[in-house]
Write a structure and sequence with these properties.
Pfam families: Cytochrome_P460. The protein contains 5 helices and 6 strands; from the N terminus they run αααββαββββα. By secondary structure, the chain is α+β, with helices and mostly antiparallel strands. Strand 1 and strand 2 form a beta hairpin.
């Protein structure tokens, strides 16, 4: 039980850490959207240039089964803290990583393992937003496997994505409770 409390505390600490980074390219969202509405994974170094919003840990039998690390552009954090809304052009990248757990009892710790893939959300413009099965409820939705970042495995956001986001529809379908930087 202490290990679970440790993991929860670790997630809170990691989520509170932010690195001051230069402003992300404002064209990040448009660079990820093809003319037909298909979404491709960003080629930007989001780990270096964007702000880490927080982490979510999925617990397994003993320790972390998966650790998700979430990033967005620095200007998104500023805009959200000022208005409480995600601006057009917001890109949220969630890294999906294996959890690596070592030790036992009070000495059990979990850390980031192998990259399994990404989940990306893009806030489209209100005028002439992209159309298609990856777009709706105010966002573009796409999941990518680590070995094929050029092609989304999402076929329809309503069947592949929205289910996990329905509980947070009042916060624009984003789990803001896990992102301390978005708090005013």
């Amino acid at each position: 039980m202490k290990a679970l409390h440790y993991l929860a505390g670790l997630a809170a600490v990691i989520g509170a850490v932010s690195v001051d980074a230069p402003a992300a390219d404002e064209g990040a969202a448009s660079a990820m959207v093809k003319p037909d509405g298909t979404i491709v994974m960003t080629t930007q170094n989001y780990q270096r240039d964007w702000t880490m919003l927080g982490t979510f840990i999925h617990l397994g039998g003993s320790g972390a089964k998966q650790i998700n690390v979430i990033y967005t552009q620095p200007e998104t954090v500023t805009a959200y803290r000022e208005s409480g809304e995600f601006p057009e052009g917001t890109v949220i990248i969630k890294e999906l990583r294996d959890g690596v757990t070592t030790g036992e009892g009070d000495d059990m710790v979990s850390s980031l393992g192998e990259l399994k893939g990404w989940f990306a959300m893009i806030k489209p413009p209100e005028t002439n937003p992209p159309q298609g099965p990856l777009w709706g409820d105010g966002w573009g939705w796409a999941k990518f496997n680590a070995d094929a970042p050029e092609a989304t495995i999402t076929t329809n956001y309503q069947t592949d994505c929205i289910g996990c986001h329905i509980p947070v529809q009042d916060t624009d379908f984003i789990h803001v409770e896990g992102y301390p930087l978005l708090r005013k």
